[in-house]
Amino acid sequence: MAISVFDLFTVGIGPSSSHTVGPMRAAHAFVAAFAKRGGLASVSGLKVDLYGSLAATGRGHGTFTAVLLGLEGYDPETVLPEEVDRALARIEQTGELQLGAELADAQSDDAQKTDAKRTEPRSLRFGVDDIVLHPLTVLPRHTNGMRFAALDASGNTLDEQLYFSVGGGFIIREGAEEAVLDRLEAALAEQPYPFRTAAELLEHCERDGLSIAQVMLANELVARDEATVRAGLAHIWDVMEACKNSALERTGVLPGGLNVRRRAPDWHRRLTEQDPHRDPVFWQEWVNLVALAVNEENASGGRVVTAPTNGAAGIIPAVLFYATHYLPNAADWSNGEKQRVVADFLLAAAAVGVLYKEQASISGAEVGCQGEVGSASSMAAAGLAQVLGGTPAQVENAAEIAMEHNLGLTCDPIGGLVQIPCIERNAIAASKAINAAKMALMGDGSHHVSLDEVIVTMRETGRDMSEKYKETAMGGLAVNVIEC
Ligand code: SF4
Questions:
Q1: Residues of each domain in the chain carrying CATH 3.30.1330.90
Q2: Nearest to 199 by CA among 456, 454, 450
Q3: Does any ligand 1 atom lie closer than 6 A to the CB of residue 364?
Q4: Where residue 479 falls among pLDDT bands split at 50, 70, 90?
Q5: Is the model's pLDDT at 104 over the cut of 70?
Q6: Under the phi-then-psi rule, with left for phi > 0, alpha for psi from -120 to 50, and beta for the rest, what region is 20?
Q7: DSSP-assigned beta bridge partners for residue 171
Q8: Whose alpha carbon is nearest atom 4 of ligand 1?
Q9: Which atom of ligand 1 lies closest to the CA of 368?
Q10: How confident is the model over 231-289, as pLDDT tens digits?
């Protein structure tokens, strides 16, 4: 599979896929590769440089602490929020980092890794303040650059690698791009329905009489059997639900110093009183609540599904909630029927996510918020149109409408925190997605602007957008609102 549904929907921790998950993954990859070669014993020092947007907004996005955790060997997919708190408190208290310690633990737990050289963690004096920041330096490949260097006792460089966090938790190592591209090309060639554009996707559907979800599923089956794919999709939905439910239990203010009050628990209580029997008239309030809850959990560093980024993580769960509660007869569905709806929704949404990854970007630091919230809204619209029984052309139309009305959306979070405008923006974008799907279903799938055209427009709008509005905390709300 070139880009799988399981690449677009991954489990990680908040608040940002590009600024938290990606940097943790990159630091983890650096130390794991070095450990595999048996080099950790010779490491006496570290040098970490962050560039561009990571340096400018990294503090609010948890980048610096994510790097420390990655260097210890924590993996964003498996680390628990309470482990994060414990590890960071220890590092702050001792001033020391246990380089590769979690790799060592994972090796001893996993018999399959016994062929890797045994990793001995190294205690090194290193903390957040040792990370060198270059906010005004944008490296040629991408604004989210990270350079890691391992040093010996004399200060000589043992190994140095440059990574980029390119959105949605995806990372690229400088020098390894060709190999990655070759692997992607090879995987693409194995797929029964390879596609990079919506036109190609629709052609497959038309030729073989398949839905967009069925095309995506057929491609997934190259790498996994159907039971595994369906179990994986069910797990993604479970984590989305758990994320929302966790937020409903947590009161107080969000971390970071902006004093943003968590609203989800209070809204939930009031809504449960006002609407005990799920009257359809209240659908909008419930959708708002789910988006708010997921994004509050993300903003507090909780466990979320990156969908396709963390900043936009509330949109797909909110629209999925709508689908599983307000579609005709949803209340009577068996668990199996509900799982099938969820799977079709996520597969269609992922097919549209592939198009954004292939033709544009899902990184706010690269194309602004239209790439994050806009892409998620477009994906959610496609998922909903799919489970509403839309034809492939109607699903494509839904995705197009949602992005068309998110074009130009900038990224300017206050204080570099994924809170304002991000949390409410997810609720608004979820509503847009629902409206886009409903509008598409009223038509016959024919429309003036194709999804491919709107994706290219988004990419070019992002390219022309002032750098101030691409996750730099240097423009828009980030400078016009006084932090309190
Ligand atoms: S404004 Fe949009 S792109 Fe920027 S951090 Fe918030 S959700 Fe992400």
A1: 15-179
A2: 450
A3: yes
A4: confident
A5: no
A6: alpha
A7: 165
A8: 411
A9: 3
A10: 999 999 999 999 999 999 999 999 999 999 999 999 999 999 999 999 999 999 999 99
Please indicate whether residue 354, judged by its CB atom, sits closer than 6 Å to ligand 1: no
Instruction: Compute the distance between CA of residue 308 and CA of residue 477 in angstroms, rounded to an integer.
Output: 24
Proportion of the chain above pLDDT 70, given as a percent:
94
CA atoms of 369 and 410, how far apart (whole Å): 5
Residue nearest to atom 8 of ligand 1 (CA): 311
Q: Is the CB–ligand 1 distance for residue 373 below 6 Å? A: yes
Domain 15-179 has CATH 3.10.129.10: no
Pocket test for ligand 1, best of 18, 418, 419 (most atoms within 8 A of CB): 418
Nearest atom within ligand 1 for CA of residue 369: 3
Strand ranges (E), 168-212: 170-173
Mutate to test the pocket of ligand 1, among 369, 375, 426, 470 (most ligand atoms within 8 A of CB): 369
Higher-pLDDT residue of 113, 82:
82
**Statement: residue 82 has pLDDT above 90:** no
Question: With 0-12 CB in 10 A as exposed, 13-18 as middle and 19+ as buried, what is 480?
Answer: exposed
Task: Calculate how far, in angstroms, residue 94's C-alpha sits from the geometric centre of ligand 1.
Answer: 34
pLDDT tens digits, 364-403: 999 999 999 999 999 999 999 999 999 999 999 999 999 9
pLDDT value of position 186: 72
**Quick one: pLDDT at residue 114?**
43
298: left (phi over 0), alpha (psi -120 to 50) or beta: alpha
Query: CA–CA separation, 30 vs 53, rounded Å?
Result: 20
How far is it, in rounded angstroms, from Cα 294 to Cα 300? 10
- Distance between Cα 42 and ligand 1 center (Å): 40
CB 40 within 8 A of CB 120: yes
pLDDT band at 416 (very low <50, low <70, confident <90, very high): confident
Q: Is 27 in the pocket of ligand 1 (CB under 6 A)?
A: no
Beta carbon of 312 within 6 Å of any ligand 1 atom: yes
70 in contact with ligand 1, CB cutoff 6 A: no
DSSP for residue 411: B
Distance, CA 418 to ligand 1 centroid (Å)? 6
Question: What pLDDT band is residue 49 in, cutting at 50, 70 and 90?
Answer: very high
Rounded average pLDDT over 32-59 = 92
